[in-house]
Amino acid sequence: MSFDTEVLIIGGGMSGLGLAVQLIRKFGVRDFEIIEKSEDVGGTWLANTYPGCGCDVASHFYSYSFALNPDWTRKYSMRPEIQQYFRSIAEQYRILENVRFHSFVEKAIWDESSETWTVTIKDQKTKQTITRRAKIVISAVGALSVPKECDTPGAETFEGPIFHSAKWDHRFDWQNKDVVVIGNGCSATQFVPIMSGGPRATKKLTQFARQSHWLSERENPYYSSTFKNFMRYVPLAMRLYRAKLYWDMEKDFTGFNIQSGRNIRADLVKTNKEYVKRVAPRKYWDVLIPKTEIGCKRKVLDTDYLACLHRPNVELVATDPIKEIIPSGVRTESGREVKADAIVLAIGFATSQLLFPMDIRGKNGISLNKHWDSETEGVAQAYFGTCVPGFPNFFIMMGPNTTTGHLSVIYTVECQINFTLSLIEPIIKTLPSYRNRSILPSLSLFSPVPSVIDVKPEAARLDSAWTQLECKKLVWSSGCTNWAIDPKTGMNIMMYPDWQFLYWWRSIFYKKQDFVYTEAKTGKEVKPWSPSPLGLVARTAAVGLLVSSGLIATGVVDRDAVEDGVKHIVASAKELVKWR
Ligand SMILES: Cc1cc2nc3c(=O)[nH]c(=O)nc-3n(C[C@H](O)[C@H](O)[C@H](O)COP(=O)(O)OP(=O)(O)OC[C@H]3O[C@@H](n4cnc5c(N)ncnc54)[C@H](O)[C@@H]3O)c2cc1C
User: Fold this and answer.
1) Candidates 119, 409, 411: which one to mutate for ligand 1, based on the most atoms within 8 Å of Cβ?
2) Which UniProt keywords are given for this protein, alphabetically ordered (predicted)?
């Protein structure tokens, strides 16, 4: 069995970096590669450079559990600080040397005979293609890294710049210019107040909204140096603060149940309506207060957006949608022409095409899309959002049904990382970089040598059925269209329908019988969790031998006592074999 790298990770964002760090921390191995299409790590926080880009989860919780940061400057940090956080972690664990930048994974094909993945990678600069063979492949490409294409007719005729918020064109200076913004989701509500206010304000900013979102009040205080010192020096302070932030968000889950959460949602609706009416201009109340259930879409935290709608240079248009883009701007359904020097697309991401545009082929050359076509009418599903049957040694971070409507994505991905590392542990421990660390693991000569892990198809089907059933009980299925629901089948492709602490629980106490490990040499199923009696005895003896030789060398025990001990172990081993 030969390969170029033991673990190949696709994507150097939060998920890919977290995985790499935990491979190092848990197994002490460095034989992994991260393939990243951009020029740096950070993913979302590298790509989204629009003005005002920031986090909607408090930073003390939107951070890795293994890398708490006492120095967050404010409750909800802005993009540069978050990006710096991820980069500093990559530097601290010397991960950058394992990243192949400007490299795009085009396809990954499972090779049955060598039990490895052949991964085709295209260099974004030279356009050259290389292949790397890996024992294990983990996709960490995120769910929000492919911006949606503009589907408004006439885009090619527009004379000015037209760009997506995730691909901000920094050459465009909006000061005193006419700007059209299409979309009113989280990103738009962050950059509209910045573009329309201050000394660099736009002449006119016209925003077109297709749907309304529940907007809630948010304060974003700066942390004082006393607070930061408290976090840094008082034992457990950061953990306790984090636990508080966790609970403040996790308790929102009670409101998601269509039946039992009714009263909680009614209270939330009241609070949100009051907030909108207090802050936004009266003429927009109808547009800003959704008719759909609260919680159906991820709530948007108000970053001074509602207040900026009072500005004379801002107009929100919700009842006269854009019909087409014309050379000078846009023309609406009613025939109104709105002039624009630039058009900003805040239209979100292609979330329904999971792992698009990569071509991933598992056993018998079946592609992921073909697999999902035959199993779930084309809808992406995966066991624990991570494993797909027929795709051995392959794992998906932020896979189907792993998103939450109320918590941090980092929390969820860390659960997936725990789960994945626990599944691959028996395989990693047979691979050269782990075995070479110590002579002890090489005693796996006496134990099965698992080479391949796959989830059982029946287990994956049951997990998907459970997920879909549970999703039906929650607000996302209450009839509002949203990004989580596949329009064709009505299946939920994004959300995890349970408390997040139970997601963590499942990541630790998963059903081992749902997975099959096979051995390289024999191709037979093995159970790495129950080592052979001979292996057990050999390990005990080896540890005993090492300890006693140390003790003999230091003169703590005499040689005769050791001899007696060894005889006893051999006798026990014989007994054990007889008993088996
Ligand atoms: C504007 C914005 C704000 C957000 N705010 C929050 C928030 O406040 N709280 C929250 O919990 N979540 C938030 N999210 C969700 C956010 O995406 C996740 O929290 C997190 O950053 C996802 O990390 P990731 O590593 O899984 O994916 P990403 O950050 O998207 O990283 C994926 C990486 O994979 C690379 N890649 C993709 N395809 C390929 C390929 N084929 N070959 C090679 N490389 C590839 C990309 O270049 C990217 O670097 C936000 C998302 C956006 C877009």
Assistant:
1) 409
2) FAD, Flavoprotein, Monooxygenase, Oxidoreductase
Nearest to 168 by CA among 340, 38, 47, 83: 47
pTM of the model: 0.90
Whether residue 373 is found in the same domain as residue 512: yes
Residues 332 and 357 placed together within one structural domain of the fold: no
Indicate which residue's Cα is closest to atom 35 of ligand 1: 11
Question: 566 and 479, same structural domain?
Answer: no
Q: Structural domain of residue 265, as residue ranges?
A: 155-214+259-292+294-345
Rounded Cα distance, 425 and 415, in Å: 15
* Residues whose CB falls within 8 Å of the CB of residue 189, separated by 6 or more in sequence, listed in order: 213, 215, 300, 302, 303, 305
**Residues 374 and 467 both lie in one domain:** yes
- Residue 563 is predicted with a pLDDT of 65
pLDDT for residue 579: 45
Whether 391 is in a domain gets the answer: yes
Helix/strand/coil for 356: coil
**Candidate from 44, 98, 165 with most ligand 1 atoms within 8 A of CB, to mutate:** 44
Q: Model confidence at 521, in pLDDT bands (50, 70, 90)? A: confident
The Cα–Cα gap between 214 and 185 comes to 10
Angle between helices 559-579 and 533-553 (to 10 degrees): 180
Same domain flag for 328 and 408: no
3-state SS, one letter per residue, for 48-106:
CCCCCCECCCCCCCCCCCCCCCCCCCECCCEHHHHHHHHHHHHHHCCCHHHEECCEEEE
The pLDDT assigned to 295 comes to 85
Give residue for tokens 């790590």: 41
Number of helices and strands in the chain (H, E): 16, 21
| CATH number for position 25 | 3.50.50.60
Query: Is 253 among the domain residues?
Result: no
For residue 254, tell me if it sits in a domain.
no
What pLDDT, on a 0 to 100 scale, did the predictor assign at position 530? 67
Same domain, 171 and 309: yes
Which of 522, 546, 561 is at the close of a domain? 522
Query: Do 356 and 341 share a structural domain?
Result: no
528-567 pLDDT, tens digit each: 876 566 666 666 666 666 666 555 555 555 566 566 666 6
Residue 293 CA neighbour count, 13 Å, CB half = 21
* Residue 565, in any domain of the structure: yes
pLDDT digits (tens, 9 = 90+) for 446-472: 677 899 999 999 999 999 999 999 999
pLDDT (tens digit, 9 = 90+) per residue, 314-335? 999 999 999 999 999 999 999 9
- Is the CB of 52 inside a 6 Å radius of any atom of ligand 1? no
Specify the pLDDT at position 143.
85
